[in-house]
Amino acid sequence: MQYAFSPFVSRKLFFSRMISSFRIPPGNHNVSAIEIAGGGLQARVLSHGAALQDLRLEGHSSPLVLGFADLRDYLDHSAHHGAIAGPVINRIAEGTAVIDGTTYLFDRNDHSRHTLHGGSAGFGTLNWQIADAVSDSATLSLSIPDRHMGFPGPVEASCRYSLGARQDGGALLSIDLRATSATSTLLNMGHHSYFCLDDKADIRTHNLRIDANHYLPADKTDLATGDVLPIADTDFDFTKGRTISGSYDNNFCVAQARCAPRPVARLSSPYSGIAMEVITSEPGLQLYTGHKLDAPVNGLRGIVDGPYAGLCLEPQMWPNAPSHPDFPSILLRPGETYHQISQFCFFNLQDTNKL
Question: Which of 90, 100, 132, 218 is most deeply packed, by most CB within 10 A?
Answer without folding.
Answer: 90
